[in-house]
Amino acid sequence: MSRLLLPIVACILVAFVATTVFWVTKQSSTLVKAFENEVTLAQTFLESPVAAAVWDFNAEGVSGAIGGVSEMENALFAKVFVDGDVFAELAVEGANPEGWDAGIAEILAGTEAAMQLESGGVAYVKFPIHHSDGTVVATMVMGFDGGVIASVVNTLYTQSGFAVALICLLISGIVYVSASGVTRPLARIVARITTLREGDTQTEVPEIDRKDELGRLARSVAAFSVTIKENKALEDKSHEDAREQAEVVSELAEGLNQLAKGQLSYRIATEFQSDYEMLRADFNKTAAALDDVIGRVLGTISEIEDETGEMAKGTHDLAKRTENQAATLEETAAAISQITDGVQSASHQTKLVERTVDTTKTDAVRGGEIVKSAIEAMQDIKDSAVKISEINGLIEDISFQT
After folding, report:
1. 90 pairs with which residues across the strands?
2. DSSP per residue over 85-104, as a string?
3. What are phi and psi of 266, to 5 degrees?
4. Cys-Cys with 164: which of 16, 223, 322, 390 at CB 3.0–4.6 Å?
5. CATH of domain 2-172
6. Residue 122, class by beta-carbon neighbours within 10 Å (0-12 exposed, 13-18 middle, 19+ buried)?
7. Domain boundaries in the chain?
8. Which range, 109-118, 212-221, 250-259, 371-380, has the best average confidence (pLDDT)?
9. Angle 328-310-320 (CA atoms, 0-180°, nearest 5)?
């Protein structure tokens, strides 16, 4: 709650403080501006009659001219100085003149012709008095209560502070009530989520009938609670199924172990759940069939042993006959060896004849090539003789013609 309330109140407080400071500053500026306008207005209305009275050395006229100062708001006194001496003066009834002389002396000592000075809670204003021809004939100093503006500003700050405090309290109360309408139901929903996380799926979810976002959140939590409840039921069923499967597997493992040890007469007597009862029946049928098959196999083995004895006897007789055939084969092998030697000798002679024939064939081929070369040479000689005969004929023709 505090995390939600404090930032809101802080923002509101900052906004109101900023607004108040701006407003009070503006009011103060307005008051100061009004004071300056009042002084300017007084100077405008007083300068001409005061200048005329001073020009005539009429002190009573000056006093009468400045008599209207007493009607000005917050005015304390007015003095007219000619050549540094007081020519005429006026003090508002009830004003305390203590400290005026020091302030007047200080502002008269200023080098500027017109100026303002605040000292001791009194605002001093100095301005020159001009004759109609522009000549400065006197200097007028007026005093005003400077604490009035400060008092008004302080009053404004005090009133604004009370207003800000009251508004902040009021808004804080509204925000607290509004936030409580959200945070408290939210806290109850969060608490229900915590109990749901701890396994409580039976307790109702609060704020489920609300029409806002909290109601949507509550209904979502309720739906989540139903889902958790269904998941828990599925989980419990899964555990029960796992336990039943473990029992079935244990019984089957024991049965297979007994069969492995040769106990073919072992049968599973413990009844299973309906989903696994068929598996127990199949195991018992398989064990019975295996027992029958093994029995028949043993009988067949006995018959095989008898037939194996007879086969051993026949094999002994066959071995004797094989020995006789082996001796005969040995003699046959010796004769074949002699024949092989003869064949090898004949093969050697055949290879020698083949070599001789190859040599003769080579020589014949070579002789054929020599004859072919001789024939070609003789053809060339014949061609040359023909050409020589033609040349001789030509020579004879030439000789004849010559």
Report:
1. 78
2. EEEEEEE-TT---TTHHHHH
3. -70, 135
4. 16
5. 3.30.450.20
6. buried
7. 2-172
8. 109-118
9. 15
Question: Phi and psi dihedrals of 205, rounded to 5?
Answer: -85, 125
Q: Which two tokens stand for residue 299?
A: 């009988």
116 φ/ψ angles, rounded to the nearest 5 degrees: -125, 150
Weakest mean pLDDT among 128-137, 214-223, 269-278, 367-376: 367-376
Q: Confidence band (pLDDT; 50, 70, 90) for 80?
A: very high
* Predicted model pTM: 0.38
Chain centroid offset of residue 349 CA: 100
Determine contact, residues 81/87, Cβ cutoff 8 Å. Answer: yes
pLDDT at 226: 78
DSSP, residue by residue, 107-159:
HHTSSSSSEEEEETTEEEEEEEEE-TTS-EEEEEEEEEETHHHHHHHHHHHHH
Token couple for 296: 């028949």
- Scored b (16 or more CB within 10 A) or e, 317-354 reads eeeeeeeeeeeeeeeeeeeeeeeeeeeeeeeeeeeeee
